[in-house]
Amino acid sequence: MAQLDAIFKAYDVRGTYPDQLDEQTAKAIGAAFATFAKSPRIAVARDMRPSGVALASAFEAGARACGSEVIDLGMGSTDFCYFVSGHLDAPAAMFTASHNPAQYNGIKLCLSGARPVGEESGLRQIKALTEQFLEDPPRGEPAPTSSMDLLEIWADHVRGFVDTAVLRPVRVVADTANGMGGLVAPLVFGPLPFKVEYLFPELDGTFPNHPADPIQPENLVDLVAKVREVGADVGLAFDGDADRVFLIDETGAGVSGSLTTALVATSMLKSHPGSTVLYNLICSKVVPETVAALGGTAVRTRVGHSYIKQVMAETGAVFGGEHSGHYYYRENFRADSGIITALVVLELMSKAEAPLSELVAPFRRYADSGEINTAVKDPNAAVESIAATLGGTGPALDRLDGLTADYGDWWFNLRPSNTEPLLRLNIEAPDAASLAEHTTTVLALIEACSERS
């Protein structure tokens, strides 16, 4: 189980190829997923990583040996794979390691209708079944396999989220980082009036230009420079599997996931008045404030797609956003999509005939730290120690996901990483000066408590 412990994460399977995740393991996971899903057919897609072809083929062989027909979708983005799961009402597997470096690969799984599979919704059972199939590989008569090209149908679905008649020739720079955005963004934007220039559109899973991880500021340097150089109206930064997008305004300033969530919420609540909008607990307070001001209901959730999709199903929420750049849509089978989010923002810019900086300005009310990671021996013990230290000292504490301490005018959340011995800290305060002061205080608290853990 040690090998499987290393690659089965909270939301997906992910590891280095071939030492952690190889063809034998992929075949066993395919058999395990087919056994768990109990579906007559499974759709499989992959990103541009060199190891994807062999791993997907092995997964398909395992699934077919357990009686599931395989529909090979070829290359696509993760949000395309989720769409196909909903469109065909079939389970699906997406081979990608998202923003991770080239030596990694992984599998994002979903059940029919794009229903999520996470640690608490199937991954534990799939992991146990994988162990069984590693010891006793499946030997059944292979079910059939076929291929389907659904990219154009998906692109039409994406464009259906906006009124294409109001779109204007907004000047866009899209950095696809040699990832799947280089395939899917031109398909979606092609028939639209935008003037799009692409950076690093060549599909290359070795990422020769920069890592496909747009949450890191150093990976946005090329995009910011190009936006300023050509006088673009907006920059779009996609991650490796193109299910996330980050925005750069016309001045070269970044727009956080929280601000994008608030901005998109304004559009969704105008077209769906009084609806519910979800936001995860490290999003800025500007999100629930914006939703309430527009007459919607804001619901706070844990971090992670499997939790958010579950709450969307329970509440009927029209939209949900995460600070990490994932945005979820009810009419997209409750799945996340970077390209839908980009289109909604471009529609807002077209309607307002205003620069992105002007649209975002009302939401820039607070200062935030971004994610600060601290290595500690026992992250869970450190969180418990800090919770005990703060108990009764003034802040409102909650344990929805890690520890959130809300002091009224500022707050912080501290969560153990799901994959590494790290504590992940996010802080929001009224201004930069108070943010710096509170960050120093909380980091000192982490250091003191982690020493005792």
At a glance:
It is built from 15 helices and 23 strands.
**Largest sheet report:** 7 strands, mixed
Number of DSSP E strands:
23
Task: Give me the CATH fold name of the largest domain.
Answer: Alpha-D-Glucose-1,6-Bisphosphate, Chain A, domain 3
Percent helix among the residues?
A: 25-40%
**What structural class do helix, strand and pairing data support?**
alpha/beta
Basic shape: globular
Task: Give the mean pLDDT.
Answer: 96
Q: N- to C-terminal separation?
A: 27 Å
Low-pLDDT runs:
none
Going by CATH, what is the homologous superfamily of the largest domain?
Answer: Alpha-D-Glucose-1,6-Bisphosphate, subunit A, domain 3
What is the count of distinct domains?
A: 3
Mind explaining what this structure looks like?
- The protein is of the alpha/beta class.
- It has 3 domains: 2-149, Alpha-D-Glucose-1,6-Bisphosphate, Chain A, domain 3 (3-Layer(aba) Sandwich); 156-365, Alpha-D-Glucose-1,6-Bisphosphate, Chain A, domain 3 (3-Layer(aba) Sandwich), CATH 3.40.120.10; 367-452, TATA-Binding Protein (2-Layer Sandwich), CATH 3.30.310.50.
- The protein has helices at residues 2-7, 23-37, 52-65, 78-88, 119-135, 151-159, 181-189, 221-230, 257-271, 286-293, 305-315, 338-352, 356-360, 379-390, 432-452; strands at 13-16, 41-46, 69-75, 92-95, 104-111, 115-116, 145-147, 171-175, 195-199, 234-238, 245-249, 254-255, 276-280, 297-301, 319-321, 327-329, 335-336, 367-368, 372-375, 396-398, 403-406, 411-416, 422-429.
- The strands form 4 sheets. Strands 1, 2, 3, 4, 5, 6 and 7 form a 7-stranded mixed beta sheet that branches. Strands 18, 19, 20, 21, 22 and 23 form a 6-stranded antiparallel beta sheet that branches.
- A hairpin with a 3-residue loop joins strand 5 (104-111) and strand 6.
- The chain is globular and about 65 Å long.
- The model has no long low-confidence stretch (mean pLDDT 96).
